[in-house]
Amino acid sequence: MAATLHDVARIAGVSIKTVSNVINDYPHIRPTTKQRVLDAIAELDYRPNLSARSLRSGRTGVIGLAVPELSLSYFAELADAVIRSAERHGVTVLIEQTGGDRAREIELLTSPRRQLTDGLIFSALGMDSDDSEYLRVGYPLVLLGERIFGGPTDHVTMRNVDAARAATEHLIALGRRRIAVIGAHEGEVIGSAGLRLRGYREALEAAGIPFDPALIGYTTLWHRSNGADAMRALLASGVEFDAVFGLNDTLTLGAMRVLQEAGLRIPKDVAAIGFDDLDEAQYSLPTLTTIDPGREEIAETAVRVLLERIASTDLALPPREILADFRIVERESTAPAAA
Amino acid sequence: MAATLHDVARIAGVSIKTVSNVINDYPHIRPTTKQRVLDAIAELDYRPNLSARSLRSGRTGVIGLAVPELSLSYFAELADAVIRSAERHGVTVLIEQTGGDRAREIELLTSPRRQLTDGLIFSALGMDSDDSEYLRVGYPLVLLGERIFGGPTDHVTMRNVDAARAATEHLIALGRRRIAVIGAHEGEVIGSAGLRLRGYREALEAAGIPFDPALIGYTTLWHRSNGADAMRALLASGVEFDAVFGLNDTLTLGAMRVLQEAGLRIPKDVAAIGFDDLDEAQYSLPTLTTIDPGREEIAETAVRVLLERIASTDLALPPREILADFRIVERESTAPAAA
Fold first, then answer.
1. pLDDT digits over A37-46, tens only?
2. What are the HTH lacI-type domain coordinates in residue numbering (chains A, B) (predicted)?
3. Number of structural domains found in chain A
4. How many CB pairs under 8 A join A and B?
């Protein structure tokens, strides 16, 4: 006969409530107690009935997180931050990868898998504002990213334009005038690339520096290899520049490697600034000046807002757009231009 | 009234079978057809009944992947490889992070969430061989990692001892004699650190080089910061060395940064070799010689073996241990010692 909750409680020498708390992964359970319950569950091969449980409470204690690509360090570090934040709130995170593909993203939003979780944190990349009706789903949803604005759900995002303007102003303040960009997307207006390029152009304009299209390095993806390729193309074009703004850190780190292979010194000959403040940026040679876009704040806010929506009965609460604070993290890769 | 499968098929102008194929995320569906079905699903707000579906087929088309930490690049790149491999087989992956904590790992194995997937690929870190009975679960399970050997499930792993011996032999062949290690774990015999340290000692012994405990840098975790701290401690100790073997790439990259801050040249003064072949190792300065432990092969094999178990009715099939092939990837960080 299958073991019951009562059997587990009896073997572990705890109350049924305690067993239930362990199964529901509630925080603040003494580790030794938790271990006794887990040992009893294993000994009896007890399998809680998820459907019964979720019918009772109406909740699973699990939230979903969908990101484009875990092999991009930004999303791996974001996922880690969301998981740590969810843990503090006593909920578990199930992660899915979309590849940034529009059809996959739409499929994910309407997938029956959504019934397995209480809500979803969704970092969109393939969909755009024309698709925002797809976000009108029947479950709590928090949107991340820079692809859809003004949609029907809560949206937690970063100050892309302001932060990119600040990064460019930082280079201009150091006396740099010929600032290359790595990672632009042809024709993109919104999206991370489009918004960050706009911030760059605003900073140039404010400083009276003419925009030179020859300084813009286009890439499709934002991996190190894309940054390296774009920098090789810039160097081959013969265009002169004294600084580079990589639209994310991995692009910038790939570009820095190519600059150094070409015998250019960073920051003396070319100053470099990235965007993301990855862990890696503290250990590269030179260390990378970058924008911290508020990743921890974004993760914490997204989890908090999603849990509020899950707990709320007020369906009329209007969608909110919440912007994280950014800051420039100055390291070795930027310094004043030589006189 | 709730929309039905028939409504979706009618609106999309396709057969019910095609709608079902899209919902089940089968491969080889024409993108335009898939999009029509997804649009119809969105228009009708159709929600397939997962429980009914999984009762019919007995399968969900979803597999789980549990890893210690996505912020460690090795696991992010492994997760990406598993997802890409699963995609080729037409299944979706749900990822969970355990933090490498034993109690969390045991909880995950017995969690009701396991009913949501057809099977689990589990990269253990906190559990050890004494816990192998916890792996006797009622669903298909493939174990990864180096913490549990001889357990009751299929196990896909890497040749840790052989690969670490080869890494050390590579340094010895270049004329290096005083080889520091970064990332050892005090008292560990199995586990990645224990096995790789064993390979290091075997290579020294074969070459007649005495083992010097003063050359071993201990860390708790394997992040860049741990590698940097361990290298600072080695330098502060005054011990002399002409090479460093970092037990993973992130440790080694952290250690390299500290060596260069101290004015030591890599590879001239100190040669460096890592373990993992992360994408980052191709772009660091210098690029990092490392062990490719067969991550892609491990991911592909784990998915294939798990799907075989899910499809198989032969419960008596004995557990298999499958070892991936490794290779040394030579880059700039290793070169012959000066005469």
1. 888 877 777 7
2. 3-57
3. 3
4. 162
